[in-house]
Amino acid sequence: QDNGFEQFIINYCNEKLQQIFILMTLKEEQEEYVREGIQWTPVEFFDNSIICNLIENSKCGILAMLDEECLRPGVVNEDTFLTKLNQLFATHKHYESKETQNARRIMDASLPSQCFRIHHYAGKVTYNVTGFIEKNNDLLFRDLSQAMWASRHTLLRSLFPEGDPQKVSLKLPPTAGFQFKASVATLMKNLYSKNPNYIRYRPRGEPRPQPWHQRDPPQPTAALPRCIKPNETKTAMLFTPELVLAQIRYLGLMENVRVRRAGYAFRQLYGPFLERYKMLSPRTWPRWTGGHREGAEVLLADLALPREELAFGHTKIFIRSPRTLFDLEKRRQERIGQLATLIQKTFRGWRCRTQYQLMRKSQIIISAWFRGHM
């Protein structure tokens, strides 16, 4: 109920994770359909970039204003910080305080005077500015860093590289908010370099996926967890529909489900797709001399898959249902077994034929020598 500086930066990180979830699962996927020329009706969703920008903008974001107050000479306190925020974000629709509410003639007794409120993606959160400046300042003085670096303990020395006299800087140490923002930026860069990874429930009766050692080398993935809390008391077998529904809405799962239902569960470039499944058609196996897209079209035509399950983009093939993909994998595994049997049969035939010819040749030589001897 009482949120301070720590909860503020934690929620900032949550907002950034929500942003990457939106970009990876909603925005980029719909843009890919348009880019590939797939017929698509856009699904509307809320982009929380405006909230992230409110917090992290390097010139006029909340963290930038907090750093400015921490580094400003003279008497500094939370009142001047809150006043500056009220002036900057007086008209911002995701920020409110007692002063902005009074300007809009809004009567709200739940918002104290020393607080501001942010309309996050997951709902409204009220923050008390008391202690913001003190907690944002890095109070580890330079001489303490130098003392730790001079230690003979290897681990302790490695934790304070800024204490090295050769690397000493006269600049003010970075604030806690600045360091956290840099850490979040590094995390986002790492996540953006991955592909989203979805964990799917397997209904009873559906074939199990391949063992890990039989699959193709996986692409780098980034699991975006979306956990639902069924009740507030952590009690087994208790399901609170209102709580679950609120979490589903706040996590953006409704929009994600709409995109997933209307969209395609699988997409792949024509080249790798044809290389993986070309064994399923006599017209594409053992080798196809035409273009990759034409080969994929011939292959899928021979497999007689439902037309509504497929969509042909400019560079990729799209498959709507996971069941269709599982059917392709099942046929491929069966065909691999047939090809393995064919290879074994051919090899055994060659080995037996070679052995027979050698025995026959030996028999003729022995017979010739025996007749000559007689």
From TrEMBL:
Keywords: Actin-binding, ATP-binding, Calmodulin-binding, Motor protein, Myosin, Nucleotide-binding, Repeat
Domain Myosin motor residues, every copy: 1-333
Top-rank lineage group of the source organism: Eukaryota
Region (Disordered): 202-222
SMART domains listed in its UniProt record: MYSc
A Pfam family recorded for this sequence: Myosin_head
Family, as annotated: Belongs to the TRAFAC class myosin-kinesin ATPase superfamily. Myosin family.
UniProt-recorded name of the protein: Unconventional myosin-Ia
Lineage: Eukaryota, Metazoa, Chordata, Craniata, Vertebrata
